[in-house]
Write a structure and sequence with these properties.
289 residues; alpha/beta; Rossmann fold; 9 helices; 37% helix; globular; Methyltransferase
Length: 289
C-alpha cells in the first residue's frame, strides 16, 4: 500500500496539487531519514553533542550528564516516537534540544504551553520519566500522543494557580504562538525563572515564521540593547504587514526581568535536519515589575 500511494502521489496527485499552488509531501518525520553506517552516525552524533555542549555552557546550564551519551540515547529513542509529523511542530533537532535541556535542567515539574500533536510532551516524558507534566493548549483535538500521567487543560496557562509548585524545580516550555515578552512577565509574576521558548525569531527573520507572535525574546533583547531606537520593526507575510513598536512598555518590562537568554544553535550544520529554534531564558529571581 505505501508503494501504491507513493506512485499515485508522484504521477497524479502531486501534479494536480502543484497546479493548484500546493506541495503534496508524505507525512514522514525527518528522523525517518538517517545515516546507518557507523562512521557517519558517530560523526552526526559527535557534531550535535559538541554544539549542544557549547550551548549549555553559554546558557549557564551546568549539566551533570555526558552530553554525547544523551545524544546517543536520543538517537535510539526518536524512531519510536508515537507522533508522525512532517510540517509544523518539532523535528529531530528541536526534539533533541528539548530532550537534552530537560535532562540538564532536571525539573520535577514541567508546564507545557502549546502541545500541538504531542511530540514534545513525549520527549519531555522520555527525558524526565517521573516529572509532573501540565499540558495547556486551547485545542487538544489534534493529539497523536496523550501522556497518561500528564494533566491536560484547554485554558491558558496563566489562568491556573501554580503556587503549589516549587519554582526552583519547575521549567515552563512555551511553544504557543503568544507574545514571548508577555510570557516572560507572566512567568516572573508566578515565581518561575527557568523558561524555554520555541520559535524565538529575530526581527530580520520573523517573516519566515507562520503566525508570528511578537515581541519575541530576540526582539526584546535587540530593542533593549538599541536603547533610543524609534523606528518599529516591520515585516510582511502573506500580503499582511506586521509591526513591532520600538517603544513598547511590554518590551521594557520583559527586558528588566531577563537575567540571561541564549538561543541554541539550529543544529542544521551538525545533523542535516531541519533547523531548530529553541531559546533558554533565565529570569532574575527578585525583580519588580
Amino acid at each position: 500500500m505505501p508503494r501504491l500511494m507513493e506512485r499515485l502521489r508522484r504521477r497524479w496527485l502531486g501534479p494536480l496539487f502543484d497546479r493548484l499552488g500546493y506541495d503534496l509531501v508524505p507525512a514522514i518525520p525527518d528522523w525517518a531519514h538517517r545515516p546507518v553506517s557507523p562512521h557517519e552516525v558517530a560523526q552526526l552524533l559527535d557534531n550535535a553533542a559538541a554544539r549542544l555542549g557549547q550551548d549549555l555552557a553559554a546558557a549557564g546550564i551546568a549539566c551533570r550528564h555526558d552530553v554525547r551519551a544523551l545524544v546517543g540515547e536520543f538517537w535510539e529513542l526518536i524512531p519510536r516516537a508515537p507522533v508522525r509529523q512532517r510540517r509544523g511542530g518539532s523535528g529531530f533537532n528541536g526534539a533533541l534540544q528539548l530532550f537534552v535541556l530537560m535532562r540538564a535542567l532536571e525539573p520535577d515539574c514541567v508546564i507545557e504551553s502549546g502541545v500541538f500533536r504531542g511530540l514534545t510532551t513525549w520527549v519531555i516524558r522520555q527525558a524526565r520519566p517521573d516529572a509532573r507534566i501540565f499540558c495547556r493548549d486551547p485545542d487538544l483535538s489534534g493529539l497523536q500522543y496523550r501522556d497518561p500521567a500528564a494533566t491536560y487543560c484547554t485554558q491558558d496557562w496563566s489562568t491556573a494557580d501554580w503556587s503549589a509548585l516549587d519554582p526552583a524545580r519547575t521549567v515552563a516550555f512555551f511553544d504557543d504562538h503568544v507574545a514571548q515578552a508577555r510570557r516572560v512577565v507572566e512567568a516572573r509574576a508566578r515565581g518561575l525563572t527557568r523558561l524555554v521558548f520555541d520559535d524565538d525569531a529575530a526581527g530580520h527573520r520573523i517573516h519566515t515564521h507562520g503566525g508570528p507572535a511578537h515581541p519575541t525574546i530576540a526582539m526584546v533583547r535587540a530593542l533593549h540593547e538599541a536603547g533610543g531606537r524609534s523606528e518599529p520593526i516591520r515585516w510582511q507575510r502573506n500580503g499582511r504587514v506586521f509591526e513591532q513598536p520600538a517603544d513598547d512598555p511590554l518590551v521594557r518590562k520583559a527586558a528588566r526581568l531577563i537575567a540571561r537568554a541564549h538561543a541554541f544553535d539550529d543544529l542544521h550544520a551538525a545533523t542535516g535536519y531541519s533547523p531548530a529554534r529553541l531559546t533558554y531564558v533565565q529570569l532574575h529571581p527578585e525583580v519588580g515589575g
